[in-house]
Amino acid sequence: MAVNPQSTKNMFVRIMNINTSGQTAGRSLPLWKQLVFQLIALIILASVMFPIMYIVTLSFSSITTRPSKLELFPKEISFVAYRQVLDRPTGNPVTFIELLRNSFMLSMGVGAAALVIAVTAAYAFSRFKFKMREVLMILVFIPLLMPAVGLSTPLYLLLNQVQVKECKSGETAILPFTECSDGGKGKLQFNLRDSLLGVGIAMTASALPFAVWNLKGYLDTIPRELEEAAAIDGADANQTFWQIVIPLAVPQLAVTFFLGFIGHWQEFVLTWLFLSQPKDYTLAMTLYNMTGQYANSIPWNRFAAMAVIVALPVAIVYIGLQKQIVGGLTTGGVKG
Fold first, then answer.
1. What counts of helices (H) and strands (E) characterise the chain?
2. Coil, strand, or helix at residue 307?
3. How far apart are CA 140 and CA 213, in angstroms?
4. Are 62 and 301 in contact (CB under 8 A)?
5. b/e for 159-174, b at 16 or more Cβ within 10 A?
6. Contact by Cβ (8 Å): 321, 253
7. Does the pLDDT value for residue 46 go beyond 60?
8. Statement: residue 8 has pLDDT above 70
9. Which site among 106, 169, 174, 322 is 20 to 30 Å from 227 CA-CA?
10. pLDDT band at residue 115, thresholds of 50, 70 and 90?
11. How would you class 259 by CB atoms within 10 Å of its CB: exposed for 0-12, middle for 13-18, buried for 19 or more?
């Protein structure tokens, strides 16, 4: 027979079993469970905030050498590292504005392109019945089982075939569709692989499988009766899709875009393998270029300042889409 903790004479037991959750319905939580959960939350918070506080503190230091002791709060506020990073981020003749522009073009462009393609494909998988539907869904899912670096080689070889060359005769050849009439190799003018456009295509291809599956699961939860009612009122398929389905899917669209934006903003493998011209470098590539062969050769305060700058746009985008992201996550969890 269970003993009511409130009926015991032990004051400590009674205090530790006080219901502090404020719940009037459902399972109540005694004080000792509340303390355990709070302790676990504080441990998680400390493990998450430790590297962030350390990098922020290091970025405000004027000393470039490796720190000899652990400091989580800055003893000085110096913006020399930020000024140096903004003035000349690397030894290459590329400005910070160019690096920022390249990163934004890739992350925003790839995120938008993948989202538009994925939502139409997900809607087709969710609503239409056609031949090979299940097979195509499996084929879309297969790339998710492979590491991203494993797909870089075929993408590299494929995009490297598209080149624009200036022939000796003055004509322009677009490989592999046309070649120089004189049989010469010609002068290379453009290589799709070694360009932001080529990297964007490769990133879009790698982002589509997750986006399609993520949106398809959410679109399945939208009642078909809404579309049937719109059809009865005279709406065609395009009007139903853009005016009924898309507004209802905005929260999940924001989640998909944000997750893709984070991955593309911090993408390093594809850009490092594909790009060779400094004018096309991104912020993630520049951050890696700051690391040297030896720890003592790294400008630690500038490295930390660049890390903070690279992380800021992600935080800004999250704050801007916070309402839609939280709504998409919670609604998707309830509907699923």
1. 15, 3
2. helix
3. 8
4. yes
5. beebbbbebeeeeebe
6. no
7. yes
8. no
9. 322
10. very high
11. middle
Q: Which residues are within 8 A (CB) of 155 and not within 5 positions of it... i.e. 6 or more apart?
A: 202, 205, 206, 270
Residue with tokens 């593309």: 264
Q: Which residues contact 118 (CB under 8 A, 6 or more apart)?
A: 208, 211, 212, 214, 215, 256
The answer, as to whether pTM is greater than 0.70, is yes
pLDDT of 2 reads 47
User: 146-178: per-residue pLDDT in tens?
Assistant: 777 778 888 899 999 888 888 887 788 888 888
Cα separation, 100 vs 104, in Å, equals 6
Reported confidence tier of residue 196, pLDDT bands at 50, 70, 90: very high
Residues, the chain, total?
Answer: 336
pLDDT of residue 335: 44
Q: Which amino acid is residue 110, in one-letter code?
A: V
Q: What are the angstrom distances between the C-alpha of 305 and each of 60, 89, 299, 322?
A: 8, 10, 10, 25
Whole-number mean pLDDT of the chain?
81
User: Which residues are paired to 190 by β-bridges?
Assistant: 164
- Which sequence spans correspond to the domains of the chain? 80-126+208-335
